[in-house]
Automatic annotation (TrEMBL):
GO cellular component labels: cytoplasm; plasma membrane
Identification of the protein by name: Signal recognition particle receptor FtsY
Record PANTHER family: SIGNAL RECOGNITION PARTICLE RECEPTOR SUBUNIT ALPHA
Annotated segments matching region Disordered: 30-120
Enzyme class label: hydrolase
Keyword Membrane among record annotations: yes
Principal location: membrane
Biological source species: Bifidobacterium vespertilionis
Subunit structure, as described in the record: Part of the signal recognition particle protein translocation system, which is composed of SRP and FtsY.
Biological role stated in the UniProt entry: Involved in targeting and insertion of nascent membrane proteins into the cytoplasmic membrane. Acts as a receptor for the complex formed by the signal recognition particle (SRP) and the ribosome-nascent chain (RNC).
Length: 422
């Protein structure tokens, strides 16, 4: 065998080997493309989403080029279905925290303007005249009879007793009326009414000094007023109304919430104070020492040079000696800072003679300088005004005739008598 033949055999063998290798790689490329077609079809059917760049590595690689042929670039797999247009991507929310604008402070409520004292007296007199008080009317109807019998005089005394005038004051008034010849001889109702009016004014006390000590010449500044009384008489409410009365008179006031036993008492007093821009000194916790609160309130009133300090105390049952002793302690501790000028006992006018028992015990325990009669409107027991003054020798200085914030006024004897005789 010559050399040319051997070269030809080797050349054919090389060509066969190259063809086999090329066929092997070509088959692998076809299988890869066939496997990619179902995935592409599924992707085209689903909504198009932005794909991350890293998925480009999953694209099929181009087939190896045959020897002597230029390499062909790999074509992306074509889907058998047309791809749906991709939805626009939703805008991404900023991860930075929103800058909150500072809330604008709410304007403080405008303080109320309390009603003047003169206007209160006029309005309260009209209220008393309209109230269901049969006291004066019953007396007037009896005394205007033609001839007064012994039975009629007994009716007069019974009427006075039912009105809580008191036994002693009732007997005194009946004796004076029987001794007055005008009662038995006068037939004019207007004259009888005027006579009865004069007798009642004498009993109530037409010339009694009913001014609060803060209104008297030479009063201390600050002038300290203690409010005392049993539960349910409207003591805390009266303290708030009294602050309004002083504000209407142009005085500066400080309130002391020394009722530390009733949870809502300090809050109630703060509400009253806020309405007329009056500061309230209170404890941060319930059950604190009331004498300590009163002392702090006195210090505050002295520092601010207030005209009046009103100290509200807890309602005491008059048969609890230890609680009554505590009132004395509050007064003693307060007077280490400021003298106590006034002790006002708040009485419920509807309690009648029961209020007399309360007044006696308070007078003995702490000493009172004046009476505040609350809830006098609509009461048939207006005679308590006469009874409490005669028993204690202490004047009624203030009266309450309603639930309004300005339904508290200085006691006016003439207005009271005119009201019950109207």
């Amino acid at each position: 065998m010559d050399t040319n033949t051997l070269i030809a055999i080797v050349a054919v063998a090389v060509v066969l080997v190259v063809a086999i290798v090329a066929g092997y790689f070509w088959n692998r490329s076809r299988k890869s493309q066939d496997a990619a077609r179902p995935s592409a079809a599924t992707t085209a059917a689903a909504p198009s989403k932005p794909q991350p760049k890293s998925q480009s590595a999953a694209q099929p690689k181009p087939a190896a080029a045959k020897p002597g042929e230029p390499a062909k670039s790999a074509k992306p797999a074509e889907s058998s279905e047309p791809a749906k247009p991709a939805k626009p991507a939703a805008p991404t929310k900023s991860t930075e925290p929103a800058v909150q604008q500072p809330a604008e402070p709410k304007p403080a409520p405008k303080p109320e303007a309390p009603e003047s004292v003169g206007s209160r007296l006029t309005r309260l007199k009209a209220k008393l005249a309209k109230s269901a008080n049969p006291f004066g009317k019953a007396l007037f109807s009896i005394l205007t009879k033609d001839n007064l019998s012994e039975s009629d005089w007994e009716d007069v005394e019974d009427t006075l007793l039912m009105a809580d005038v008191g036994a002693e004051a009732s007997e005194q008034l009946v004796d004076e009326l029987r001794a007055d010849a005008r009662v038995t001889g006068e037939k004019d109702p207007a004259a009888v009414r005027e006579m009865l009016r004069g007798k009642l004014l004498d009993l109530v006390g037409r010339d009694t000094d009913r001014r609060l000590n803060v209104s008297k010449p030479g009063a201390n500044k600050p002038s300290v007023i203690m409010m005392v009384g049993v539960n349910g008489t409207g003591k805390t409410t009266t303290a708030g109304k009294l602050a309004r009365l002083f504000v209407a008179d142009g005085k500066s006031v400080v309130l002391g919430a020394a009722d530390t036993f009733r949870a809502a008492a300090a809050d109630q007093l703060e509400t009253w104070g806020a309405r007329v821009n009056v500061p309230v000194v209170r404890s941060d916790k319930d059950g604190a020492d009331p004498a300590s609160v009163a002392f702090d309130a006195a210090s505050r009133a002295k520092e601010s040079d207030a005209d009046v300090l009103i100290i509200d105390t807890a309602g005491r049952l008059q048969n609890k000696a230890n609680l009554m002793d505590e009132l004395g302690k509050i007064r003693r501790v307060t007077e280490k800072n400021l003298p106590v000028d006034e002790v006002l006992l708040v009485l419920d006018a509807t309690t009648g003679q029961n209020g007399m028992a309360q007044a006696k015990v308070f007078a003995e325990a702490i000493g009172i300088t004046g009476i505040v009669l609350s809830k006098l409107d609509g009461s048939a027991r207006g005679g308590i005004v006469i009874a409490v003054q005669k028993e204690l020798g202490v004047p009624v200085k203030l009266v309450g005739l309603g639930e309004g914030p300005d339904d508290l006024a200085p006691f006016d004897p003439e207005g009271f008598v005119d009201g019950i005789l109207a």
